[in-house]
Input
Amino acid sequence: MATIRERKDAQGNKSYDVQIRLRGFPPQTRTFNSKTLAKQWAAQVETDLRAGRYLQRIEAERHTVHEMIDRYRREVLLTRKPQRGQIKAGFSTGGHPASASTALPS
Output
């Protein structure tokens, strides 16, 4: 369930602190300048938490595209048998994904 608290700073500006507490999930908090945005965020996060779709922004930012490609390569590409006439997909693990394992002629 979401709790929205109105706060005022020294200049009298309002902000709205939202805290969502659902059993089985860590509390989610965020601050907004408008109550409407606070309510919308709370409703969306509660729905996503219950459906198992919510991923905290901090957690999402920990993963890079490079890590995603490496994981896909390990868990999907390397477990499949190459089909007849198919070239094996390979990315260098230490560099940019655009640097494929085949080099261009000089």
